[in-house]
Amino acid sequence: MTGRLDGRVIAVTGGAGGIGQGIARAIVEAGGRAGLIDLDGNRVEKAAQTLDPSGETVIGLAADVTDRASMDAALGALRDRFGRFDGLVNNAGIVRLGPATEMKPADFDAEYAVNVKGVLVAAQAAAALMAGKGGAIVNVASNAGKVGYPNMAGYNASKAAVINLTRSLSLEWAADRINVNAVCPGGVATDMLGAVADFISEKSGTDRNELFGSMVPAQLGRHIEPVEVGRVIAFLLGDAAQIIRGQAITIDGGDTPY
C-alpha cells in the first residue's frame, strides 16, 4: 500500500522529546517499528514504554549522536532486536537563546555539535548499515534554517547547515539507494517552543501563556502537533517518496513562503 512502512525498522534520534515521540507514533501507524535514541537513557526508555509497553513496535536506546561508536552500537542493537534496519530520522537538536552580540562561542559550538555534527555522524552510521541495500534518511531541520529568528542566530545557522548537508548526502548516497530528505517544521507544540516563549516573556514582560498561544501558524490558526510532523516524515521514509530527493520540505502551516 502506498505510503506504508510495513515491517520496516526506523531509528529516531532525540526520541525522548515531543517531536521524536510523534515521529515514532506515525511510524507505527504506518506499520513500521521504531527505535527511539536519546542521550538520556532513562527518559528514552520511559518514552518508548509510554508508546508501546510491550516493546514489540517501539524500543528506547541510549546513545550520543555526536559519537560514531555510540551510534554504531545503538543502530546495531536496533537491527539485532528487530532483525533489520531500514532508515533514520535525525531529530535530535538543541537551541541556545540570546542576542547574537552576547552569544558565547561555547553555546555556538554546542548547537553545531548536536544539530549538524550529530546529523552527519548518525547518518554515517545508518548509511553503513544500509549501503547497497537501500533505505531512507530524513533530517529534521527547521523553518528557522530558511528565514531565521531573532535571538537564535546559532540555531538558525545550524539548521541552514542541515538543509545543505541533506542535499550533499542525497547526491552522494543515491548510488547506494539511500534516499535523503529534510523537513523544516515550525510552530510545533513542544518543550523547545515553550522555552522560546519563556525567553521572550522574561525579556518583554509579556504573559507567557498568551505568548505561547500566539506562536501558531497564521493560516492554520493552531499549533502543529508532533504526530503531524511525524506523518510527513513517515511518508518520506517510504517507497512512495522515491522521487523526492535532497529536498527541505517546509511543514509549518504556511508561514514560510518556500
Mean pLDDT: 95
Structural class, by secondary structure, is alpha/beta
Could you give the count of β-strands? Answer: 7
Residue stretches low in confidence (pLDDT < 50, at least 5 long) are: none
**CATH topology term:** Rossmann fold
CATH homologous superfamily?
Answer: NAD(P)-binding Rossmann-like Domain
Helix tally? 8
Strand order of the main beta sheet, please?
A: 3-2-1-4-5-6-7
Return the domain count.
1
Q: Radius of gyration over alpha carbons?
A: 17 Å
Q: What's the architecture in CATH terms?
A: 3-Layer(aba) Sandwich
Helix proportion of residues, in percent? Answer: 40-55%
Strand content: 5-15%
Q: Describe the global form.
A: globular
Order of helices and strands: EHEHEHEHEHEHHHE
Let me know the largest β-sheet. 7 strands, parallel
CATH class: Alpha Beta
Distance between the termini: 30 Å
GO molecular function, one term: oxidoreductase activity, acting on the CH-OH group of donors, NAD or NADP as acceptor
Keywords: Oxidoreductase
Family: Belongs to the short-chain dehydrogenases/reductases (SDR) family.
Domain Ketoreductase: 8-181
